Amino acid sequence: MRVYIAGPYTKGDAALHIRRMIMVAERIVEAGHTPFIPLLYHLWHLMSPHEYGYWMTLDHAWIEACDVLLWLDGESTGTQEDVGIAEHLGVAVYSEEEFFTWIAGRKTGDSKTLDK
């Protein structure tokens, strides 16, 4: 399953937000799935800066390609926009806790844990 990880970036410490996404991505891989970390665009932006809309266009294309959007808590206008796009496209949206509870349920055969 392809999992888009959405969460805060510009409010607070960007490095801590990126680290958090990477740690969540590690758990997703351990569960046998494929994460997408949009905040890794940070490095690209440092070398080749673009306007906000450029990055959001790329993000939205990835959301469409994913099966699930995992929503990390924290204040973020971009994350709210990502969630809205996912819902509009019919991509399942889970909080971090909901997602890992759902994954654990799938492994134990309790797939009804969170069917959205």
Structure description:
It comes from marine sediment metagenome. This is DUF4406 domain-containing protein. Pfam families: DUF4406. There is one protein chain. This protein is of the alpha/beta class. The protein has a single domain, classed as Hypothetical protein PA1492 (Rossmann fold, 3-Layer(aba) Sandwich). It contains five helices and four strands; from the N terminus they run E-H-E-H-H-E-H-E-H. A four-stranded parallel sheet has the order 2-1-3-4, with helices on both faces. Strand 3 (about 70), helix 4 (about 75-90) and strand 4 (about 90-95) form a beta-alpha-beta unit. Helix 3 (about 50-65) packs parallel to helix 4. The longest helix has 17 residues, at about 15-30. The model is unreliable at about 110-115 (pLDDT under 50).
- Principal-axis shape equals globular
Tell me roughly what share of residues is in helical segments.
40-55%
Question: What is the fold named in CATH at topology level?
Answer: Rossmann fold
Structural class: alpha/beta
Oligomer kind: single chain
| CATH architectural designation | 3-Layer(aba) Sandwich
Rg is 14 Å
Strand tally is 4
Strand order of the largest sheet: 2-1-3-4
